[in-house]
From TrEMBL:
Family: Belongs to the short-chain dehydrogenases/reductases (SDR) family.
GO BP terms in the entry: bile acid metabolic process
Entry annotated with the keyword Oxidoreductase: yes
Oxidoreductase in keyword set: yes
Protein name from the UniProt record: Enoyl-[acyl-carrier-protein] reductase FabL
Source domain of life: Bacteria
Assembly with partners or alone: Homotetramer.
Keywords of this entry: Oxidoreductase
GO molecular function: enoyl-[acyl-carrier-protein] reductase (NADPH) activity
Naturally occurring in which organism (per UniProt): Peribacillus saganii
EC code(s) of this entry: 1.3.1.104
InterPro entries the record matches: NAD(P)-bd_dom_sf (IPR036291), SDR_fam (IPR002347)
Biological classification of the source: Bacteria, Bacillati, Bacillota, Bacilli, Bacillales
């Protein structure tokens, strides 16, 4: 992977953090993106540098298109290329549909789905210069199943998965593969904001056919597979990593 560069949005914590560190261990130089916690982002950057890889850390709220453009301008100036884009940054308001306000809807859709489109436009331009690349988005089962209080996030993830299919077709002539990974309940910092967190964790522990909950490592393994050459004929797909839980829902 010498000289290859990967961008992971929202990579200061959780799945994004572990994905960035894993890609560095695989030989990629990294672009770490964060919106709030500079301290956490710099800790990730330090771990990547300790692995002998180069790293660029950029603060940018990817729900803002102007910030997206600035992010990619810095990537082009610093590295001059991009080979892998992991669309991981996510946010959302957890309320019943009848309690959602316009600001809640716009915030969630901007970060979880609009960001993917406009990041993909910028990423594809850089990837095309070096013969292609790989894009993988992080989704969730709420895109296809009802989850309590998850309306805005679930709809935004459904849009992300639809966009994955459209981009896979339109970017294939540029040798850019586009896919998504959808995970079951994972005990991350993000899950702490769910009002029914304990119920979700109990259900996942008891009802998952695989006999255990999904881990962050399971998600990272799926991302690494989809950006590999072995997965080059997988395009526009959403790979569900849930230990079989959704088969029983």
């Amino acid at each position: 992977m010498t000289q290859k560069v990967a961008l992971v949005t929202g990579s200061s914590r959780g799945i994004g953090r572990e994905t960035a560190i894993r890609l560095a261990s695989e030989g990629y130089d990294l672009v770490i993106n964060y919106a709030r916690s500079k301290t956490a982002a710099m800790e990730v950057a330090a771990e990547i540098e300790a692995l002998g890889r180069k790293v660029l850390t950029v603060k940018a709220n990817v729900g803002d298109v102007s910030k997206i453009k600035t992010l990619f301008e810095q990537i082009e100036e610093h590295f001059g290329r991009l080979d892998v884009f992991v669309n991981n940054a996510a946010s959302g308001v957890l309320r019943p549909a009848m309690e959602l306000e316009e600001s809640h809807w716009e915030w969630t859709m901007n970060i979880n789905s609009k960001a993917f489109l406009f990041c993909a436009q910028e990423a594809s331009r850089l990837m095309e210069k070096n013969g292609g690349g790989k894009m993988v988005s992080i989704s969730s089962l709420g895109s296809i199943r009802y989850l309590e209080n998850y309306t805005s996030v679930g709809v935004s993830k459904a849009a992300l998965e639809a966009l994955t299919r459209y981009l896979a077709v339109e970017l294939s002539p540029k040798n850019i593969c586009v896919n998504a990974v959808s995970g079951g309940a994972i005990d991350t910092d993000a899950l702490k904001h769910f009002p029914n967190r304990e119920e979700l964790l109990t259900d996942a522990a008891r009802e998952t056919p695989a006999g255990r909950m999904v881990s962050i490592e399971d998600m990272v393994n799926a991302v690494v597979f989809l950006i590999s050459e072995e997965a080059s004929m997988i395009r526009g797909q959403t790979l569900i990593v849930d230990g079989g839980r959704s088969l029983l829902m």
